[in-house]
Specification:
Strand content: 25-35%
CATH architecture of the largest domain: 3-Layer(aba) Sandwich
Keywords: Ligase
Protein name: O-succinylbenzoic acid--CoA ligase
Number of helices: 10
Radius of gyration: 21 Å
Largest sheet: 7 strands, mixed
CATH superfamily of the largest domain: ANL, N-terminal domain
InterPro entries: AMP-bd_C (IPR025110), AMP-bd_C_sf (IPR045851), AMP-dep_synth/lig_dom (IPR000873), ANL_N_sf (IPR042099), ATP-dep_AMP-bd_enzyme (IPR050237)
Pfam families: AMP-binding, AMP-binding_C
GO molecular function: acid-thiol ligase activity
């Protein structure tokens, strides 16, 4: 007899529908085939077992210091939202479903809901999961940020890098931010503030790509209903799975070789430096887009941004900023002048494209393919 078909969850669905869909998965009766939010490549669904989701949730609680009330302020159909509901089930505490889970995100309502929950039950730890865009909106009003600080024990932030300017505002408000790194393939975040969760090992390939080894790494992807263990395409880019030695207790493990580039410091902390397919070669010089985006994001006239390479007849590629303005659009010449002390000349943006909102493939995750298309039609070129 063939195994039952995996459970699927549409990306745009309700929290109640997700909880119902997760019931047979967490009971061990069926696998979950969850769409990945990868920003390039073919659509794929990672296969996850209920035991894997539970093990990841248990490791998260162990690192955070215990179970608690989880707050769902993210779309429940993506891995970050799914894991909030899984952790709530493992903790045995009813989740607080608030703004952002179903409908647009309202920082004021979030603060009010958290304050009410903390006043009703001041002894239960409260955990919130957000993406950087939500943190940016939340910290625009110091009073709102301070209210959330007073009502939470940890704010997990993942899905994308947290811009330096936003991180500074969060720190000023005392927001208990925990930066997470992971993916659908690893049942969500598995590296917290640069350190792996219990049961997780981090490493690097010779090419500098980050590897994640754990018992709860996916066993493969479904692409057009075919199970594959590699998403590599022409040029060798793309995540892949490898066998790994079992854990000391004999538990089987797998390794996910990501497309992210990173460094591991002397203290064992992982720092993501970019993606293998993101480096921009301009005038023969390789430019990592991350530091450029950090510098641009610190400008008060920029609400959100990304940096990509666009074809250029003279330079090969030109460093291009795609950004959401805060107020009036900044002229490219002024933007370049504002960055000269922070960036070398080779990394200064040579083009800018202003947009009303950043294209996304999932909560807080930029659609790099769409960004590259936008970059080919800049508003200004130096």
């Amino acid at each position: 007899m063939s195994p039952p078909a995996p459970v699927t969850i549409p990306p745009d669905t309700t929290a109640d529908a997700v909880r119902a869909a997760l019931a047979p998965v967490l009971a061990g009766e069926r696998e979950l085939a969850l769409g990945t939010s990868g920003s390039t490549g073919s659509p794929a669904r990672a296969l996850l077992r209920g035991a894997d989701l539970r093990a990841s949730a248990t490791a998260t609680h162990e690192l955070l210091g215990g179970t608690g009330r989880w707050v769902l302020a993210l779309p429940p159909g993506h891995i970050a939202g799914v894991q909030v509901l899984v952790r709530a089930t493992v903790a045995g505490v009813e989740p607080l479903i608030t703004t952002g889970a179903e409908g647009s995100f309202d920082p004021t309502r979030l603060a009010a809901d958290l304050t009410t929950a903390r006043e009703a039950d001041p002894t239960t730890r409260t955990y919130l999961s957000l993406v950087p865009t939500q943190v940016a909106r939340l910290t625009e009003d110091p009073a709102t940020a301070c209210a959330v600080t007073a009502a939470t024990d940890a704010v997990l932030v993942g899905g994308a890098a947290l811009p330096a300017a936003v991180a500074e505002r969060a720190a000023t408000a005392g927001l208990p931010v925990v930066r997470t790194y992971g993916s659908t393939e690893t049942c969500g975040g598995c590296v917290y503030d640069g350190l792996p969760l219990p049961g997780v090992e981090i490493g690097r390939t010779e090419a500098g790509r980050v590897t994640l080894t754990a018992p709860w790494v996916t066993r493969g992807w479904l692409i057009d209903d075919e199970l594959v263990t590699s998403r590599a395409h022409a040029g060798g880019q793309g995540a892949r799975l490898e066998d790994a030695p079992p854990a000391p207790d004999g538990t089987p493990r797998r390794t996910l070789v990501t497309d992210d580039l990173g460094e591991i410091g002397p203290d064992g902390r992982l720092r993501i430096t970019g993606r293998a397919d993101d480096l921009i070669t301009t005038g023969g010089v390789k430019v990592a887009p991350g530091p450029v985006a950090d510098a641009v994001g610190c400008l008060p006239q920029v609400a959100e941004c990304a940096v990509v390479g666009a074809p250029d007849e003279t330079w090969g590629q030109r460093v291009t900023v795609v950004a959401v303005p805060r107020g009036e659009r900044l002229p490219l010449a002024t933007l370049r002048d504002a960055l000269r002390e922070a960036l070398p000349a080779s990394a200064l943006p040579r083009a800018v494209r202003w947009v009303e909102a950043m294209p996304l493939t999932g909560p807080g995750k930029h659609d790099r393919g769409a960004l590259r298309r936008l970059a080919t039609e800049p508003d200004e070129v130096a």
